[in-house]
């Protein structure tokens, strides 16, 4: 893991605060003199009361002095509470901004990186910097203010206690050093425990999410998987609780040691000051002034070590967050070559393996797809068909070899600019909680009514829309709105087809979107889709060979390699693997 150090991370946070919330930045420094002045006034007020009584000060001037000090103290307390509240509120706003930035990075990261286990673990670890009210991104202003208050408070109060007994000063500094070094130990222990158990949180999040997901609810109930979910959650939660208890125990020990030193400090302070009174070196007024001054000085020393520990621990959490940002920023979305005029696609010696895997999914693929050609990529499940499509769309990047579109290497294009030339429907689709019209039109950046009506008609989705209460303005995903509806699987697929047709991209891809339908229905939809997409490059993916007989060329993939290529007729005449698979499949349904 990349570590930047406390100073660099804190500079990063303060710079972010200064750029995004100038009021919060000013509050950090505004609260310091207030926080130092308040304990001084709290100590000075009883001293002034006692001195006035002992000196028999004239009543009017005595009361005026006490009133002024009390008013100053009241104003200071009011200011301190106001500044603290503003620091907390604005600090949480800051946490919200980082939380939004985290989600923004996660959504825009290269698709390929999301397949890696390290991505999910890095995301989980980065959550520690934004989760909860005590997250470092929300408390950084408070910690900085407390650190500065403690440091400057020590400097300001040091002259007031310079002459007290040396053993008391020694105890105060031993307390500070103990807290400081124990804080270093705690930070290192926290880092070690977090790294050792980062997989546990990922498993817990997975189980918690899947157990309440409506999509899986039927399977969980039908096959009585609730006990498995509960036991698995309990197992991983107990594992997490074990290391949390270890860390909590270490923190408790640190608090116990700190409390012991506070007890010794207060005892020695009382003993020293009472002795000074009995020997006549100080009076009662000086006693009630010095004791809270000593306490504040000692508390600031302890607070200083505590804030240093918070800075170190926060720096660790921030490293996780910034490392995740770096992982997401290291992508291929920047400006690139102009988009191609022609859309010929060529793969040269392309091999691919997933991140953090040694197994090649595709091996030495060589393929040419001409503009406006209709191509079918077929093969059994797991042959590598979808992986090949992801490479063509520049969502995955070749482990070996090169891919060219319009004569230029896809590495030279901006991914953000290249993706719009593709229109795709996948087997699994995401339906956002939006209106049907927005779902179909939004990704294209425009709302053309005639184009919209043609897309829903050509996709066969028009009948579904007419039956809905709000027609195309009907919201989807019932769990998000009372008036929303849920479509059936077939209706969702036609919705996605309408979206692709509306997009009118030059390269169209159907990646088994109708796999849940029967073979005859799939074949009919593919042929209908083919008629609607003339003068476009179309790529059809299926493990059902009969569905793609109409294509100009059929590519058969097996074990990550192209083993046969040609028209349906030529491949059947060849009598090879394609013909064998086609004949086997044709026995399962009629009319093919």
Automatic annotation (TrEMBL):
User: One GO term of the cellular component aspect?
Assistant: plasma membrane
SUPFAM superfamilies (UniProt xref): ABC transporter transmembrane region, P-loop containing nucleoside triphosphate hydrolases
Q: Which PANTHER family match?
A: ATP-BINDING CASSETTE SUB-FAMILY B MEMBER 10, MITOCHONDRIAL, ATP-DEPENDENT PERMEASE MDL1, MITOCHONDRIAL
Q: Which domain of life is it from?
A: Bacteria
Q: Which InterPro entries match?
A: AAA+_ATPase (IPR003593), ABC1_TM_dom (IPR011527), ABC1_TM_sf (IPR036640), ABC_transporter-like_ATP-bd (IPR003439), P-loop_NTPase (IPR027417), Type_1_exporter (IPR039421)
ABC transmembrane type-1 domain: which residues?
135-313
| GO MF entry, a single one | ABC-type oligopeptide transporter activity
Q: Give me the segments passing through the membrane.
A: 23-42, 62-79, 143-162, 168-189, 252-272, 284-302
Bilayer topology annotation = Multi-pass membrane protein
Q: Where in the cell is it found?
A: Cell membrane
Q: Where is the ABC transporter domain?
A: 345-584
The name on file for this protein is ABC transporter domain-containing protein
List keywords of the entry alphabetically.
ATP-binding, Membrane, Nucleotide-binding, Transmembrane, Transmembrane helix
The keyword Nucleotide-binding is annotated on this UniProt entry:
yes
Question: Where is it mostly found?
Answer: membrane
């Amino acid at each position: 893991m990349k570590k930047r150090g406390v100073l660099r991370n804190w500079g990063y946070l303060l710079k972010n605060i200064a750029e995004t919330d100038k009021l919060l930045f000013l509050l950090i420094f505004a609260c310091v003199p207030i926080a130092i002045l308040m304990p001084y006034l709290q100590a000075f007020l009883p001293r002034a009361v006692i001195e006035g009584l002992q000196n028999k000060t004239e009543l009017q001037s005595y009361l005026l002095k006490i009133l002024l000090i009390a008013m100053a103290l009241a104003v200071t307390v009011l200011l301190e509470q106001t500044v603290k509240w503003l620091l907390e509120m604005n600090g949480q706003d800051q946490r919200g901004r980082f939380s939004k930035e985290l989600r923004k990075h996660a959504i825009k990261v290269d698709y390929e990186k999301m397949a890696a286990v390290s991505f999910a673990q890095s995301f989980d670890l980065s959550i520690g910097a934004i989760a909860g009210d005590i997250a470092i991104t929300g408390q950084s202003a408070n910690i900085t203010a407390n650190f500065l208050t403690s440091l400057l408070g020590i400097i300001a109060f040091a002259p007031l206690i310079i002459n007290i007994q040396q053993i008391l000063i020694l105890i105060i500094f031993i307390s500070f050093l103990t807290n400081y070094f124990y804080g270093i130990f705690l930070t290192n222990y926290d880092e070690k425990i977090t790294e050792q158990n980062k997989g546990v949180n990922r498993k817990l999040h997975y189980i918690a999410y899947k157990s309440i997901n409506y999509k899986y609810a039927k399977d969980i109930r039908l096959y009585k998987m609730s006990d498995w979910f509960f036991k698995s959650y309990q197992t991983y939660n107990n594992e997490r609780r074990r290391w949390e208890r270890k860390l909590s125990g270490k923190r408790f020990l640190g608090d116990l040691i700190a409390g012991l030193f506070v007890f010794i400090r207060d005892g020695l302070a009382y003993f020293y000051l009472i002795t000074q009174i009995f020997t006549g070196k100080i009076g009662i007024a000086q006693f009630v002034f010095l004791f809270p001054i000593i306490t504040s000085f000692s508390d600031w020393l302890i607070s200083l070590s505590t804030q240093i520990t918070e800075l170190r621990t926060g720096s660790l959490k921030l490293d996780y967050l910034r490392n995740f940002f770096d992982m997401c920023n290291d992508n291929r979305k920047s400006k690139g070559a102009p988009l191609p005029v022609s859309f010929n696609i060529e793969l040269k010696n392309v091999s691919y393996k997933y991140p953090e895997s040694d197994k090649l999914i595709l091996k030495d693929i060589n393929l040419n797809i001409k503009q406006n050609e209709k191509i079918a990529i077929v093969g059994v499940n797991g042959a590598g068909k979808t992986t090949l499509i992801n490479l063509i769309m520049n969502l995955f990047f070749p482990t070996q070899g090169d891919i060219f579109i319009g004569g230029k290497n896809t590495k030279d294009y901006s991914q953000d600019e290249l993706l719009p030339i593709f229109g795709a429907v996948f087997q699994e689709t995401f339906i956002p909680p939006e209106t049907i019209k927005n779902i179909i039109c939004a990704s294209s950046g425009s709302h053309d009514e005639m184009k919209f009506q043609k897309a829903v008609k050509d996709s066969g989705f028009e009948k579904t829309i007419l039956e809905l209460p709000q027609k195309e303005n009907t919201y989807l995903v019932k769990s998000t709105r009372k008036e929303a509806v849920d479509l059936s699987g077939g209706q969702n697929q036609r919705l996605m087809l309408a979206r692709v047709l509306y997009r009118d991209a030059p390269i169209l891809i159907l990646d088994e979107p109708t796999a849940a339908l029967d073979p005859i229905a799939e074949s009919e939809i593919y042929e209908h889709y083919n008629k609607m997409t003339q003068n476009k490059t179309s790529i059809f993916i299926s493990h059902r060979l009969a569905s793609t007989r109409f294509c100009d060329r059929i590519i058969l993939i097996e074990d990550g390699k192209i083993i046969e290529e040609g028209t349906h007729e030529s491949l059947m005449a060849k009598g090879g693997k394609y013909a064998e698979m086609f004949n086997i499949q044709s026995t399962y349904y009629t009319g093919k």
